[in-house]
Amino acid sequence: MRYSYKRGVTLIELLIVVLILGALAAIAIPRLSQSADTAKKNACATNIDIINSQIELYAADNDGVYPATLTVVTNSITYFPDGPPICPVIDANYPDTLVNDRVDKSAHNHP
Fold first, then answer.
1. What b/e string do you get for 8-26 counting C-beta neighbours within 10 Å, with b at 16 or more?
2. Contact 85/51 with Cβ under 8 angstroms?
3. Dihedral (CA of 88, 90, 92, 96) sign
4. pTM over 0.90
5. Distance separating alpha carbons of residues 3 and 52, to the nearest angstrom
Protein backbone atom coordinates (compact mmCIF):
# COMPACT_ATOMS: atom_id res chain seq x y z
CA MET A 1 0.00 0.00 0.00
CA ARG A 2 1.32 3.40 -0.95
CA TYR A 3 0.95 6.50 1.14
CA SER A 4 0.31 9.74 -0.66
CA TYR A 5 1.72 12.82 0.99
CA LYS A 6 0.25 16.16 0.15
CA ARG A 7 2.86 18.84 -0.11
CA GLY A 8 1.76 22.07 1.56
CA VAL A 9 3.21 25.24 2.98
CA THR A 10 4.45 25.04 6.53
CA LEU A 11 3.80 27.74 9.07
CA ILE A 12 7.50 28.58 9.21
CA GLU A 13 7.66 29.13 5.44
CA LEU A 14 4.58 31.34 5.60
CA LEU A 15 6.06 33.41 8.44
CA ILE A 16 9.32 33.90 6.53
CA VAL A 17 7.41 35.17 3.48
CA VAL A 18 5.37 37.56 5.64
CA LEU A 19 8.54 38.89 7.29
CA ILE A 20 10.22 39.48 3.93
CA LEU A 21 7.14 41.31 2.60
CA GLY A 22 7.00 43.40 5.79
CA ALA A 23 10.65 44.38 5.43
CA LEU A 24 10.15 45.38 1.79
CA ALA A 25 7.09 47.45 2.71
CA ALA A 26 9.03 49.18 5.51
CA ILE A 27 11.61 50.25 2.95
CA ALA A 28 9.25 51.20 0.11
CA ILE A 29 6.48 53.15 1.87
CA PRO A 30 8.66 56.03 3.19
CA ARG A 31 10.26 56.37 -0.25
CA LEU A 32 6.86 56.66 -1.93
CA SER A 33 5.72 59.22 0.61
CA GLN A 34 8.87 61.29 0.08
CA SER A 35 8.39 61.13 -3.71
CA ALA A 36 4.84 62.45 -3.39
CA ASP A 37 6.03 65.44 -1.32
CA THR A 38 8.78 66.22 -3.83
CA ALA A 39 6.30 66.03 -6.70
CA LYS A 40 3.94 68.47 -4.96
CA LYS A 41 6.78 70.95 -4.32
CA ASN A 42 7.88 70.73 -7.96
CA ALA A 43 4.29 71.27 -9.13
CA CYS A 44 4.09 74.35 -6.89
CA ALA A 45 7.30 75.78 -8.40
CA THR A 46 5.92 75.16 -11.89
CA ASN A 47 2.66 76.91 -10.96
CA ILE A 48 4.63 79.95 -9.78
CA ASP A 49 6.55 80.04 -13.07
CA ILE A 50 3.27 79.90 -15.00
CA ILE A 51 1.77 82.68 -12.87
CA ASN A 52 4.85 84.84 -13.44
CA SER A 53 4.70 84.31 -17.20
CA GLN A 54 1.01 85.27 -17.17
CA ILE A 55 1.93 88.44 -15.25
CA GLU A 56 4.38 89.25 -18.06
CA LEU A 57 1.64 88.62 -20.63
CA TYR A 58 -0.66 90.94 -18.66
CA ALA A 59 2.00 93.67 -18.73
CA ALA A 60 2.48 93.18 -22.48
CA ASP A 61 -1.28 93.50 -23.03
CA ASN A 62 -1.48 96.66 -20.88
CA ASP A 63 1.37 98.78 -22.29
CA GLY A 64 3.96 97.65 -19.74
CA VAL A 65 1.79 98.27 -16.69
CA TYR A 66 2.07 95.39 -14.21
CA PRO A 67 -0.88 94.35 -12.03
CA ALA A 68 -1.02 95.74 -8.50
CA THR A 69 -2.04 92.36 -7.04
CA LEU A 70 -2.04 88.77 -8.19
CA THR A 71 -5.85 88.65 -8.07
CA VAL A 72 -6.03 90.92 -11.13
CA VAL A 73 -4.36 88.21 -13.20
CA THR A 74 -5.64 85.02 -11.56
CA ASN A 75 -9.31 86.07 -11.67
CA SER A 76 -9.11 86.88 -15.38
CA ILE A 77 -10.52 84.33 -17.80
CA THR A 78 -7.99 85.56 -20.36
CA TYR A 79 -4.99 84.41 -18.33
CA PHE A 80 -6.44 81.50 -16.32
CA PRO A 81 -9.56 80.15 -18.05
CA ASP A 82 -9.80 77.19 -15.63
CA GLY A 83 -9.49 79.38 -12.56
CA PRO A 84 -6.51 80.40 -10.46
CA PRO A 85 -3.89 77.76 -9.71
CA ILE A 86 -3.87 76.25 -6.24
CA CYS A 87 -0.68 75.34 -4.39
CA PRO A 88 -0.70 71.52 -4.18
CA VAL A 89 1.42 71.51 -1.03
CA ILE A 90 -0.76 73.66 1.23
CA ASP A 91 -3.96 73.35 -0.85
CA ALA A 92 -4.54 77.11 -0.90
CA ASN A 93 -4.29 80.09 -3.24
CA TYR A 94 -0.96 81.78 -3.80
CA PRO A 95 -0.30 85.00 -1.84
CA ASP A 96 -1.91 88.04 -3.43
CA THR A 97 1.06 90.36 -2.86
CA LEU A 98 3.69 90.63 -5.57
CA VAL A 99 7.40 91.22 -5.00
CA ASN A 100 8.98 93.15 -7.89
CA ASP A 101 5.92 92.32 -10.02
CA ARG A 102 6.36 88.59 -9.41
CA VAL A 103 5.21 85.81 -7.13
CA ASP A 104 8.33 85.20 -5.09
CA LYS A 105 9.24 81.51 -4.77
CA SER A 106 11.31 82.12 -1.67
CA ALA A 107 8.41 83.93 0.06
CA HIS A 108 6.08 81.00 -0.64
CA ASN A 109 7.48 78.62 1.95
CA HIS A 110 6.06 75.21 2.63
CA PRO A 111 5.74 73.62 6.05
1. eeeeeeeeeeeeeeeeeee
2. yes
3. negative
4. no
5. 80
**Domain coordinates in residue numbering, the chain:** 11-93
Q: Cα(19)–Cα(33) distance, rounded to whole angstroms?
A: 22
Phi-psi region of 97 (alpha: psi -120 to 50; beta: other; left: phi over 0): beta
Segment 31-63, tens digit of pLDDT: 877 788 888 888 988 988 988 999 998 889 888
Spans of the chain, pLDDT less than 70: 1-6, 107, 109-111
Q: Which residues have C-beta within 8 Å of that of residue 76, sequence separation ≥ 6?
A: 58
